[in-house]
Design goal:
Blueprint: H1 2-57, H2 59-62, H3 82-109, H4 111-115, E1 119-123, E2 127-133, H5 134-137, H6 147-160, E3 167-172, H7 186-203, E4 211-215, H8 228-234, E5 236-242, H9 245-254, H10 261-268
Parallel strand pairs: 3-4
Antiparallel strand pairs: 1-2, 2-5, 3-5
Length: about 290
């Protein structure tokens, strides 16, 4: 019996050794693979380390390009091609084109009103003003447009519709006080007249998101209110077509009558467009009250 137990125990030990040997073999193979991978990565990292060290320790050799022809002076500013310079000149000119075209179209469409000083076109490189005498559009002390106003605004809307320039309408009055149920002061009257014109422009196809209305009351006169002629000049509505939304915001802050191009550029954060002596586009799109 004792011999039989010894034989069985011997057989159990041999089976355990076989399993252990298989495990050691697999474990050895695993470490061989891991070592080969780690050696490969180490080589890659060594190459990368040497490359980076060369870049930072020898900047002249790694950064300075090989000169071909005349060497240009080194500068921190990005290089600009001739095409970039040409495009920088073309873009401001393109921004001026709509303003010029709008001003020319208004002049050709309203020559009679311009000659009679009832309509004025003026502007600069940032905006164009279309000034209308309030008597053309409204009855005295009222903000309801008359019949002539619909024809005038319809023509102006057709001129402005093809463009995307922002438009705001400014209302002005004389200093004669008004006190009615609809218009307690000249503030309400001027703002209502501007809003009426904005509504008519929208009804005639202009995108409402382009439009705005503002009333300045009696506080930005063009002439002395002491005379009937001066009061007539002060009663006006001005349509201001701006180069972009930033310019419009800048102009509405002070009113087109007081706004200056240089100051508007500073408030709008816009670079000035190239034009001689800050004049408006050619063909009389600015600083001109007649064709």
């Amino acid at each position: 019996m004792a011999r039989r137990r010894s034989h069985e125990e011997h057989e159990n030990h041999e089976r355990w050794l076989v399993s252990y040997a298989d495990f050691i073999t697999l474990l050895f193979a695993f470490f061989v693979v891991m070592y080969s991978i780690s050696s490969l990565n180490e080589g890659k990292y060594k190459v990368l380390s040497e490359t980076m060290e060369g870049v930072f320790n020898q900047p002249d050799r790694s950064i300075k390009p090989v000169p071909v022809g005349d060497e240009r002076p080194r500068t921190t500013e990005p290089q600009r091609s001739v095409a970039d310079d040409e495009s920088s000149k073309i873009e401001p000119e393109r921004a001026l084109e709509p303003l010029k075209e709008i001003a020319d179209s208004v002049r050709s469409s309203f020559g009679d009103l311009i000659k009679s000083n009832q309509l004025t076109v003026r502007g600069n490189e940032l905006w164009v003003e279309i000034e209308l005498n309030s008597g053309l559009l409204f009855s005295s002390g009222d903000a309801v447009p008359n019949e002539a106003a619909f024809d005038i605004i319809d023509k102006i809307a057709k001129i402005l519709a093809p463009y995307q320039n922002p438009v705001h309408v400014e209302g002005f009055t004389d200093n004669i006080p008004i006190n009615t149920s609809l218009y307690p002061t000249n503030w309400e009257l001027s703002a209502s007249r501007a809003a009426s014109i904005v509504r008519m422009l929208a009804m005639n196809g202009l995108d409402p998101s382009r439009l705005a209305a503002v009333g300045y009351g009696e506080f930005q006169p063009l002439a002395d209110n002491a005379s009937a002629e001066g009061r007539g000049r002060n009663r006006r509505v001005v349509l201001v077509v701006s180069r972009n939304i930033d310019v419009r915001r800048s102009v509405t802050g002070v009113g087109s009558g007081k706004a200056q191009p240089d100051a508007a550029l500073q408030r709008a954060g816009t670079q000035p467009a190239p034009s001689a002596n800050n004049e408006a586009p050619t063909s009389g799109a600015a600083k001109s009250t007649s064709p």
